[in-house]
Structures
1.
Amino acid sequence: MPNNAGSAASGILTEKEVKEMISQLGVKATNCHEAFSLDEVLSLAENTGFPVVLKVNSLKITHKSDIGGVRLNLGSKAEVKEAYQQIMARSLPLDPGATVTVQRMAKPGLEVIVGMTTTPQFGRVVMFGLGGIYAELLKDTSFSLVPVTRSAAEDMVRSINGRKLLQGFRGGPAADQEAIIAIIEAVSALCEKHPKITELDLNPVIVYERGAVVVDARAAVIQEI
Ligand code: ADP
Ligand code: MG
């Protein structure tokens, strides 16, 4: 866990923090670079390479798109400047300490969710499901207790109703199931390593024919008072 008492006390770990933790376990993520001024945003965007993504970075704003805090596919400095000003205008009234992060734009693929939640009955449970409308409409998910073994992770991927989508439905590309299994194992390992994490969401993970990348993340931790 980042050595950041401010963060832990708030009960939330940001996208940037969770991506750094999961990256250390070998999972690919579009890592966030935090900027504190327009100049910094512009130079980070240039260093990252266009197109880039700008997102609000705040412990108080956990659903970033709800407030217009995510701007995708920004192709030039002018677009980045406009997006930065808009995100800050919307975020600062909600959190005067809000900043933005710059990250690379990932290519389209199949969006899935890997998460962890704490249940009163079973304790910590890892969840896998398809993302986007599949998640909201169909609630098509599979679960396994922490620690998740390799074979339990394989079962989680195989047991969702929409598994045909992973196999390449109607000529669509197949999704790399090995990469998903590795991410499920990494989430389980991260939770074992950090008993104070009570919830974790990688939402979405974009899966390709080869490989997968985490593009959004958040976590909740037990509050330290
Ligand atoms: P929220 O906090 O609202 O969940 P996200 O970071 O998940 O915000 O961004 C919203 C959507 O934007 C994601 O579901 C994904 O489809 C897309 N997205 C976010 N980051 C990237 C990225 N780096 N590359 C490509 N698409 C992205
Ligand atoms: Mg998200």
2.
Amino acid sequence: MVLSKKLQAALNDQINKEMASAYLYFSMASWLHDQNLDGMASWMNAQAIEEMGHAKKIYSYVYERGGRVILDAIDKPKSDWKNAVEVFTDTLAHEQLVTKSIHALLDLAIKDNDHAAKVFLNWFIEEQVEEEASVESILDRLKLVGDKGVGLFMMDRHLGERGGH
Ligand code: MG
């Protein structure tokens, strides 16, 4: 079964959103590095790489379904933040937008009666629950420890343990 034109267009749009997420998170990582918050920067870099993985997963799926990927321009990301709390507040808001867009994709697949696409999208639905929960918990703890001193240092070290990048 071929993807409907509408679903194909929406999947293409989602590839752009995942790449835009990666771009935003790389921009945040760079700001965090600049603030000597290397642990948080490392966490954010890992997050950016994950987003590119999401884009690639959708890219591959479109081809698997006999569709065509057309890439669009990626918006210039924000490059300055007030503090780490603002970075993670923006991250949470961004992930909530992505969740909405994934839910809209699933709505389309349901309308199309496209069972295969529904199964494919379920992975993303679950992934978004995890993404929002992990960012929310970081944000809660950051607000608790405040924006400087030992608390911030400890949070930075803790987030750096995600490591690898
Ligand atoms: Mg994503």
